[in-house]
Structure formats: C-alpha cells, structure tokens
Amino acid sequence: MSDFYQSVYAIVRQIPIGRVTSYGAIAKYLGTAGSSRMVGWAMNLSHHQEMYVPAHRVVNRNGLLTGKIHFGSPDEMQELLENEGITIENDCITNFKDLFWDPIKELK
DNA sequence: ACGTTGACCTATA
DNA sequence: GTATAGGCCAACG
C-alpha cells in the first residue's frame, strides 16, 4: 500500500463525530489537489482494509452522498450519518456547510 | 498493452 | 442557474 491511501484513511478516521468532509479537501491536504478521484479510489479500497474507515463521513463538494451505492445498502450510508446527528434530505446534507470539517484548517 | 471507467473538481458557455 | 468540457491518475476488462 502506498502512503497516499494510508494518509487518506488516517484523515478519515480523525473526522469528528457528526462532522463531514469532502474528497477535494482531503486531496488538497495531501497535496494531490486536482486528483481528488484518487481519494475516491482510496475509499473504494477502504472496505478491504483491516481498520474500519468511516467513509460515510466523506462526501462530494455539494454534500451529496454520491458514494452511497458502494456501501452494502444505499440507505446504509444515510442511516449512519443520521445516527451521528447529521440531517440528510434527498441524499444531501442539509447543514453541510456547518458540518463541514476541513483537514487543512482543523488538522493542519 | 490499450481503452474505458470512476465515491471528483474547476472552468467555461 | 444548469450544461458541457477538460484534467487528473489508478484500477479493471
């Protein structure tokens, strides 16, 4: 495994409960801005990682749950987020702007 | 080995 | 404001 994926997983695990972030923010934090798709790939491989990765806390820039289909059940991701106190409406995070957790600002 | 795809983002029309 | 285009790079067929 390259350090890139490990770094991505490390960041995702450090996301506080009830907060979310975006692929672009993570990519930018890792210095691979513009290649945010790789972050998505990292998430794709996250499910066969030993350590659990809360990929449900990572959404796209619009706060839309685009990756929900990659979970076992499309509704699983929304349930997990709502379980953490996040409000979802039509697969979108309503208070996304408030719940947004920027690793550059918070983790830097 | 090559072409296509993808859990994205930014920019232009 | 929505629509389309381009760029990015790794994995899959």
Give structural attributes.
two-stranded antiparallel ribbon; globular; DNA-binding; 7% strand; single chain; Arc Repressor Mutant, subunit A; mainly alpha; two-stranded parallel ribbon; 108 residues
* CATH architecture annotation: Orthogonal Bundle
Strand content: 5-15%
Major beta sheet, strand line-up: 1-2
Tell me the major beta sheet: 2 strands, parallel
CATH class: Mainly Alpha
Poorly predicted runs of 5 or more residues: none
Give a topology summary.
Layout: H1 3-13, E1 21-22, H2 23-29, H3 36-46, E2 58-59, H4 74-83, E3 88-89, E4 92-93, H5 96-99, H6 103-106
Parallel strand pairs: 1-2
Antiparallel strand pairs: 3-4
Helix pairs in contact: 1-3, 2-3
The chain binds a DNA duplex (13 and 13 nucleotides) through residues 22-24, 27, 32-45, 55, 58-61, 65-70.
Structural description of this entry:
With 108 residues, the chain is mainly α. The chain has a single domain, classed as Winged helix-like DNA-binding domain superfamily/Winged helix DNA-binding domain (Arc Repressor Mutant, subunit A, Orthogonal Bundle). It contains six helices and four strands. The strands form two sheets. A two-stranded parallel ribbon has the order 1-2. A two-stranded antiparallel sheet has the order 3-4. The longest helix is centred in the first third of the chain and has 11 residues, at 3-13. The protein is globular, with a radius of gyration of 13 Å. The chain starts with a helix and ends with a helix. It binds a DNA duplex (13 and 13 nucleotides) through helix 2, helix 3 and strand 2.
